[in-house]
From TrEMBL:
Xref: InterPro entries: Spo11/TopoVI_A, Spo11/TopoVI_A_N, Spo11/TopoVI_A_sf, TopoVI_A, TOPRIM_Topo6A/Spo11, WH-like_DNA-bd_sf
Domain Topoisomerase 6 subunit A/Spo11 TOPRIM span(s) in chain numbering: 162-325
Organism of provenance: Drosophila suzukii
UniProtKB keywords: DNA-binding, Isomerase, Magnesium, Metal-binding, Topoisomerase
Domain Spo11/DNA topoisomerase VI subunit A N-terminal: residue ranges: 53-113
Keyword Metal-binding included in the entry's annotation: yes
Catalytic activity annotation: ATP-dependent breakage, passage and rejoining of double-stranded DNA
PANTHER family in alphabetical order: MEIOTIC RECOMBINATION PROTEIN SPO11 (PTHR10848)
Broadest EC class assigned to this enzyme: isomerase
Protein family membership: Belongs to the TOP6A family.
UniProt cofactor(s): Mg(2+)
Protein name (record): DNA topoisomerase (ATP-hydrolyzing)
Amino acid sequence: MGEIVEHLEKITLELAANLVQGNATLMVPRNSSSIMTTGYRRVSYNNRGSRHSFCLLTYMLSRVHRLQVRGGSFTVRGLYYSDPQLIRSQSRIAEARLDVCRMLNTSPLSLGILAASKGLMAGDIRLLMTNGDILDGSSYGGAMTLPTDPEKIDRIETEADFVLIVEKESVFQSLLSRNVFYTMGQPFILITGKGYPDCCTRRVVHRLSEENQLPAYILVDADPFGIEIMLVYRHGSQAMSFSRQGLTTPSLRWIGLHPSEIPALGTGAVALVAGDNKKINDLLARGDLEPGVRQELRMLQDIQLKAEIESVIDFLTDDYIPNKINRNLFL
């Protein structure tokens, strides 16, 4: 906390010095993946186009400073409703929060301004919260929403053998409806981030891997966007490349669907579209791709087909998932 407060106050002093000279400007670092040659973008009150962004940034900086000094937390939604006339939309305040993260070189979880968690979990898992509450996945008998602030999880108790992440909520719910825990015959934790995962979901997966020493597997669509979601869990978000500590699981095992399996599916595959091919090229340009992942992306380019998890849903629990895990068929 001390480092964040010190950094905030340094930014404030620099802004005050600029104001004396009639230059109300904040400098926001760009993503390291940006193709722009400059490392910063200027957000100025003097520029009509960025005036609202400047006001939101100063508002967010003051809120974060207060939270760091006094403690507590806000949600993005709560901040919006505290002054909707200033903020205008929840997406605007979410963007300002990310800009402050870039300025402070820290993750959103460290600010005390939290986005509502969208992750779901089920299975053999108990979250012991710092306030004494216990969230017990086994007692719900179904899906349980992850807490908004994962740092309020004191520790995680589980007798599970592994963690299984599925890309989509529809597949998560389908597996539950098919009594996946009974069918698989061993205790595990089922998690979904409902597409691109939020920080909370990624943080919980990281802690299960590091603190509970559980192997983590992921099942995504055999398309470039599914592969990108897998990479977000494994290596972090490109939009937050400045702060990945505690949010990544490098040991994550990708069990499928693999593009190399598409020819064997027969029906169920559809043609790639222009957006898919652009995403493939963007992913291939990354420097953190493992050789096996790169090869699967090349396969997508070659066959120009993609497939969803639903194309193998009928034999996921009886054959596909157990076979992949037991025979170490993952990348």
